[in-house]
Each structure stands twice: as structure tokens, then as C-alpha cells.
Amino acid sequence: MTTTIIKPKKTLSLEDIRELWNYRELLYFFTWRDLKVRYKQTLIGAAWAILQPFITMVVFTIFFGKLAQMPSDGVPYPIFVYVGLLFWQFFSSALTETSNVLISNQSIITKVYFPRLILPLSSVLTKFVDFAIASLILIGMMIYYGYMPHLTGFFFVPLLLLITFMAATGGGLCLASINIKYRDVRYALPFFIQILLFLTPVIYPASIAGSYSKILALNPMTGVIQTARAALLGAPEINWFLLGISSITCLILLVVGITYFKKVERYFADIL
């Protein structure tokens, strides 16, 4: 009698990638399930994906755009801040949900085998749908203000989404792995994201930081948001060096996240 032992590898390999492809239908199922569960028994359904960034934009416009007179590189402040919010909320919501995805699916993890990477990937993939829905408001705002987007922006958006995806997935994998053993993550992460919002040029241009702009550059979302505004709004010019730093940082974060996740994956079912 032959005994087959299934155990995860410590690093991502071609075999793992093939396995993920073989389980692609399960990935689709988890992604579709998360979308349905999120808006199940809600009054306005998927419109919450629009209301959240829109209401946040209105509040920021009143307090920072009108009262504080925050500069916006010559662009109408509502459009300026909404572009930043689109990418920021993609990152922050994906990071938050991915960090808790193993805990919320512990009953599945402890009963049946499947590639565990599918769970965090499905959490991040749902954010692409939210991003697409929320982008409709940006189109409406540009029409309202008579602001014509730069055509180059349509080529940069997929790249910027990929960079944001790497940042959210890499960070989420690390936090999800830690959250299995130390449940403090769910309490500390909202506070961390709130602080990080003000360290990211969402409500203000990076140029306002002056001599502290190099510190802001360490935040990978700084390059993403700055490039998004430059590509879509033409203000300021694209900083290729800053975009390169963000790309390399997010790629490293993704590799570290996957490596750490694969290293401790074998203990998930035991700890849960």
C-alpha cells in the first residue's frame, strides 16, 4: 500500500504555479463568493463600492480643499483627491481583507486541501471589481469639470494596478501569516492604515512635503498615486525614478510575502 503525503513547499515553484492554474475554477469560485457575500442583504448592493470613495472625496474636499486650501497642482481638488483615493482604497481594503482571510476561512483550511494562496489572491481580485465600479465616478467628475484625461493614462492604469496588486498581496500575505498565530494584527492594522493614509500623498501633492519628499518616496503607494495623477491629469510630470522605486519595492514585498507565506503554510491547519 502506497502512502502519499501532501505537504507545502517552503518556496514558490513552477509546480505551485501549475497547481494554482489547475485550481483556477476554485479561485473564481472564492472570488465570486466574496463579491456576493459582501453585498448580500445590502440596500444598495454594489453601489457601496462607489459611495465609499465618493463620500470620502466630498469630506476631504470640504475640509482640506475648501477650508485648508490644500494645493492640487492646478487640478480641481475633487478630481485630484479622487484619483488618489481610487488607488489608496484598492490598496488599503485589499491589505485589510487579505490579512484576515485565513482566519475567516479556517473551517475550510482545516478540512480540505487546496493551494492556500488561492484565498488571499481571491480577496485581492475582488478589489479590481470595486476599482472598476468606483472609476465610473471619476469619469463623471471629469465630464462635469470639463477636464479631458490624458490618453497616456489609459496605458498606465493597468501598470499601476499591477504595482498596487503586488504591494497589497505581498503585505497581505505577511500579515495573514502572522495573524494566524498573533491575533493582534486585526486590531493594529486599521490604526496603521489610518496613519499610513496621511503619509501617502492622497489629500496633498508630494511636492508639499519639501525636504521630506524623500521619506515619502519610501512609501510604494507614493509613486503609484503620483504617476496616476501625472498620467491621467498631467500634473505633475511623471517621475520615472519614483515609479521605478515603487515598482522594485512592491516586487520585493511580493517576493518576501510569498516566501514567508510558503514557509509557515504547513502550520496553518495546526494553529487554527
Keywords:
272 residues; mainly alpha; 72% helix; globular
Description:
By secondary structure, the chain is an all-alpha fold. It has one domain (14-271). Helix content is 72%, strand content 0%. The protein is built from twelve helices and no strands. The protein has helices at 14-22, 24-39, 48-67, 77-104, 106-109, 118-145, 152-181, 185-198, 213-216, 220-233, 240-264, 268-271. Helix 4 (77-104) packs parallel to helix 7 (152-181). The longest helix has 30 residues, at 152-181. It is globular and about 70 Å long. The model has no long low-confidence stretch (mean pLDDT 84).
List the helices and strands and how they pair.
Layout: H1 14-22, H2 24-39, H3 48-67, H4 77-104, H5 106-109, H6 118-145, H7 152-181, H8 185-198, H9 213-216, H10 220-233, H11 240-264, H12 268-271
Helix pairs in contact: 2-6, 3-4, 3-6, 4-6, 4-7, 4-8, 4-10, 6-7, 7-10, 7-11, 10-11
Quick structural summary:
With 272 residues, the chain is mainly α. The protein is built from twelve helices and no strands.
| Form type | globular
The biggest sheet amounts to: none
Please give the number of β-strands: 0
Order of helices and strands: HHHHHHHHHHHH
Contiguous uncertain segments of 5+ residues = none
Structural class by secondary-structure content:
mainly alpha
Quaternary form:
single chain
Q: How many independent structural domains? A: 1
Give the N-to-C terminal Cα separation.
31 Å
Number of helical regions: 12
Q: What helical percentage do the residues reach? A: over 70%
The averaged pLDDT comes out at 84
Strand composition percent = under 5%
- What Rg do the Cα atoms give? 20 Å
